[in-house]
Amino acid sequence: xxxxxxxxxxxxxxxxxxxxxxxxxxxxxxxxxxxxxxxxxxxxxxxxxxxxxxxxxxxxxxxxxxxxxxxxxxxxxxxxxxxxxxxxxxxxxxxxxxxxxxxxxxxxxxxxxxxxxxxxxxxxxxxxxxxxxxxxxxxxxxxxxxxxxxxxxxxxxxxxxxxxxxxxxxxxxxxxxxxxxxxxxxxxxxxxxxxxxxxxxxxxxxxxxxxxxxxxxxxxxxxxxxxxxxxxxxxxxxxxxxxxxxxxxxxxxxxxxxxxxxxxxxxxxxxxxxxxxxxxxxxxxxxxxxxxxxxxxxxxxxxxxxxxxxxxxxxxxxxxxxxxxxxxxxxxxx
Length: 334
What we know:
The protein is an alpha/beta fold. 42% of the residues lie in helices and 13% in strands. The chain folds into two domains: 4-85, Helix Hairpins (Orthogonal Bundle), CATH 1.10.287; 99-321, P-loop containing nucleotide triphosphate hydrolases (Rossmann fold, 3-Layer(aba) Sandwich). Helix 2 (21-35) packs antiparallel against helix 3 (48-65) and helix 4 (68-88) runs antiparallel to helix 5 (100-107). Strand 4 (224-226) and strand 5 (231-234) form a beta hairpin. It has twelve helices and nine strands. It starts with 8 loop residues before the first helix and ends with a strand. The protein has a nine-stranded mixed sheet, sandwiched between helices.
């Protein structure tokens, strides 16, 4: 997986090659605000040197893409690289990618996935709820630390029972990772009994993850990219009866392994722990769990049972959703 320094200028600013001058300027503004000195997204994740290098790269990308003449020369260079990759294989000078398809797609700044926008309003989108957004930033920084320490990149978001807010938590967390922290993040819907992603999206694919696992569709047909972010979404779309067999299948394990190679992080919206046996099967292909608990609703004994049922898994944290504290709406405990 490439870090920011290995991306081309279009990827640095998170825009397609077809972007207008206005769109490039807007993307530059977003990138600068995400990595500026006062950005809450930074926390302790980046050193002063790393922040300066990132800002310099963002400036360099913008200076090239805003100038039509420089942009033309840069596009020609990308075209040449893509042509060479198709004829001769991967070019180590451009990052040493694993296969030609990745090099062509990434060097061109072209995303093979269909682009969509979010229909549902998220608390973290444009800081609609600043307090909640701040807490999701904190949650991400904790997960980043867990990931670096324990080599975790696949996190399942689950709950003791249905209705705790796990899907909302998964969407907000994934969005802030992909938009503000610029991590290539895949949000995967694995609650096959109660799929709930469709209302969040302005469009959905013809097929979902269950269709891929049953051999009726390809992954490329089902993954969507949320516009102006590095967030990708893989919905389930339909409820299935054989959820356990699909989640525990060889195809599921292979899919997750392919996700690990392409994405920085994978967030799995998982089934509730206590009401379904699916979670026990799914826990075998994820690295760590995030347990969502709704304050004032989830009985304490149910929380204890949920934690006990996950004792063989690595619990990265517990999200207390809806808590009336000085943080108003959300609290996170680790």
